[in-house]
């Protein structure tokens, strides 16, 4: 893979970065994190068509270690791999995350969640690189909210520990598979960055946008999914400009419904 950001994001969109560095160890991640923007699997990233005039550090620090009923995972560990490791070890508490296309680092930063479960339910602490120093922040220090944390711009999650519970591996796998089936039945296939907007309290952005008639709306190679109106899919060579055009329309529909639009996706580069 090269320096083109479309190769490093689930959206498959974005121009070239000035430099790409892939790190696979904890020490290398700590050394390199301050030199550029750190990406995991790029599952909630919209990269600029003009690329990024700097270094992008691709985090592949993948590690999972059992500590009693806890698991410590490197921030580059895929959530699917972490869920598999937990199931193999008969540890329950992460089944809701099966099928989420992201890494531990991004999940902690965004307080990832699904099916009434969330990172904040099971996190014990996270090791975070802040202002060049490695600090350990427990759950109470991370300011978790709905799809959010108090981590600052520039903070880099290095690893995190999760408190789980003993259970039968077969039951854990079945539970995870059922959640994954529900996810697949309600979300589109194809290249996307997942949900564009956060849900407001007691409401569904997808339902609001559906009622506004936006499903299937297309701009260039980007289309608002017919399965889920809060997801934009790159169908054939979509550009960031195409996606932004649809986001503006979605934002307008939410405003018309009296909903404050808060985006889940993160923009990389100039927009």
What does this structure look like?
The longest helix has 18 residues. This protein has three domains: 55 residues, Uridine Diphospho-n-acetylenolpyruvylglucosamine Reductase, domain 2 (2-Layer Sandwich); 121 residues, 2-Layer Sandwich (Uridine Diphospho-n-acetylenolpyruvylglucosamine Reductase, domain 3); 80 residues, Alpha-Beta Complex (Uridine Diphospho-n-acetylenolpyruvylglucosamine Reductase, domain 1). The chain is built from seven helices and 18 strands. Strand 10 and strand 11 form a beta hairpin. The strands form six sheets. The protein has a five-stranded antiparallel sheet with strand order 5-6-12-10-11. A four-stranded antiparallel sheet has the order 14-17-16-15. A three-stranded parallel sheet has the order 1-4-2. It has 271 residues and is of the alpha+beta class. Helix 2 runs antiparallel to helix 5.
């Amino acid at each position: 893979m090269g320096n083109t950001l479309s190769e490093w994001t689930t959206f498959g969109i974005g121009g070239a970065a000035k430099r790409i560095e892939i790190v696979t160890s904890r020490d290398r991640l700590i050394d390199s994190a301050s030199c550029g923007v750190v990406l995991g699997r790029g599952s909630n990233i919209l990269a600029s068509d003009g690329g990024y005039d700097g270094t992008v550090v691709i985090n592949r620090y993948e590690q999972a270690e059992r500590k009693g009923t806890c698991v410590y995972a490197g921030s580059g560990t895929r959530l699917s791999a972490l869920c598999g490791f937990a199931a193999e070890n008969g540890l329950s508490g992460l089944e809701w995350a099966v099928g989420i296309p992201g890494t531990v680092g991004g999940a902690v930063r965004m307080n990832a969640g699904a099916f009434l479960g969330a990172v904040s339910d099971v996190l014990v602490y996270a090791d975070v690189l802040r202002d060049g120093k490695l600090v350990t922040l427990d759950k109470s220090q991370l300011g978790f909210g709905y799809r959010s944390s108090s981590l600052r711009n520039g903070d880099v999650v290095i690893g995190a520990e999760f408190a789980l519970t003993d259970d039968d591996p077969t039951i854990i796998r079945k539970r995870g598979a059922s959640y994954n089936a529900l996810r697949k039945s309600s979300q589109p296939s194809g290249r996307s960055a997942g949900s564009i907007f956060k849900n407001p309290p007691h409401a569904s952005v997808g339902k609001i946008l559906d009622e506004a008639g936006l499903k299937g709306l297309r701009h260039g190679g980007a289309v608002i999914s017919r399965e889920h109106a809060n997801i934009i899919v790159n169908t054939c060579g979509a550009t960031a400009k195409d996606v932004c055009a649809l986001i503006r329309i979605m934002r307008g529909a939410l405003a018309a419904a009296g909903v404050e639009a808060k985006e889940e996706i993160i923009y990389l580069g100039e927009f």
